[in-house]
Structures are given as C-alpha cells and as structure tokens.
C-alpha cells in the first residue's frame, strides 16, 4: 500500500482513539450527573450542563440518550472525583482532575505516568495553593461593560472581564459558577457559551528550557490519553500545543 497509506491509517487510528476517549469521558460525566439527581435535564441543571458540553464536543445524540437511559436503570456505578498534584520538568506544577469508578486504578495510572516521565507526585495542597480555582465563561452578544453591569446587578463576584474582538471572557471564583451562568442566561436565553468551565489558573507562570519542553509535552500527552483523566492544568507559559 505504501508509506502514504500507513500514515493515513495511523492518523485515522489516532483520531478514532481520541474520539473514543472523548465519548467515554462524556458518557461518564453524563451518567454521574444523571445518577446524582433526577435523570431529566429539564429539572437537573448539572445534567443539562453536561449534555450541552457533550453536544458542543459533537458527542453522538444516541450515545447521550443511551447513557441517560442507563442511569435510569438499576445499576449504581459509583464515580469519584479525585485530584492529583505533581511536579514536572523545570519545577513546573501539574494538577490532574480525574473521575473514576476505581480510585486505586486511577492513582496507580497517574503515579506511573508521572514516575516514568521523571515527574513527582505531590501531596494534596502542595500545588493547588499556587493556583486559583476559577469559573470561566466566554461568549458574544454583550460588551464588557454590559456584562459587568448585569453581573453586578445579579450580585455576582467577578475576578476579571476581558474582551477580544467581540468575545467577552468572564473570570470568577469557582463558587460563583452557577450564579453567573444563571444571570447571563436570564439576560439572553439564546446565549451560546464558547467556554463554560471550572479551571485551575496559575498565580504565576514559568518558561521551560528547550530541553525540558519535550518532557513536559510527553507527560501531558500521556495524562490526556488516560481514560480516567478529565482535565490537566499546569503553570508553563508558551508551551506548544499538543498534537491532536
């Protein structure tokens, strides 16, 4: 078939694997949201949020439906949210957010990845104290001044509001997530959030040496390939984007 065929096949396999991981990730999130409340997005706002995110990620509608139907059944899979903290190349700091039905399996997987890439696992709080847990929203349709006015009127605590080419970004303490989303949605029921998440934002950033960049990219790639890992945050500035 030739080298070109091999390259295409490898690329297709990589894309399929990434899509499979994404499907598994959202299935788990939707299932957990449905099981921890009424499995109806009209009354379960957490479930509604996860479904909206899944649709934006182009998760198949039938997969979303099957997951909700599974949650309505008798099975009671227990999922645990767990966070690991570590230290990477060049004194970089890493936060790994996981959702798992087997804590021992996930701990071993994350520890192994960190260990074999020359990183170290930290104790709880060893890294997060250098980050701020923030709610982040990005959207169009309001100016930054209009956004500030309506959030102040709704008694929302906001850390920062930025605007770039018509795109407004709101940063706020994680505890304000629900209040801010409700205020924005009430002001514009048709609003579409291009970003809608909780994230760990570094209080300060570092720049890695050229020698350390490949090592950092490797540990991030391996962590993102792990099924139980939901999000990975770090304090490295200017790191090239990972290959899709």
Give structural notes.
The protein has 7 helices and 8 strands, in the order αααββαββαββαβαβ. The chain has 244 residues and is α+β, with helices and mostly antiparallel strands. The chain has 3 domains: 70 residues, Arc Repressor Mutant, subunit A; 77 residues, YebC, transcriptional regulation domain (Alpha-Beta Plaits), CATH 3.30.70.980; 73 residues, YebC, transcriptional regulation domain (Alpha-Beta Plaits, 2-Layer Sandwich), CATH 3.30.70. The chain has a 4-stranded antiparallel β-sheet. Strands 5-6-4-7 form a 4-stranded antiparallel β-sheet, with helices on one face. Helix 1 runs antiparallel to helix 2 and helix 1 packs parallel to helix 3. The protein starts with a helix and ends in a 10-residue tail after the last strand. The N terminus is likely disordered.
Give short descriptive properties of this protein.
single chain, 244 residues, alpha+beta, Alpha-Beta Plaits, four-stranded antiparallel sheet, 43% helix, 22% strand, globular
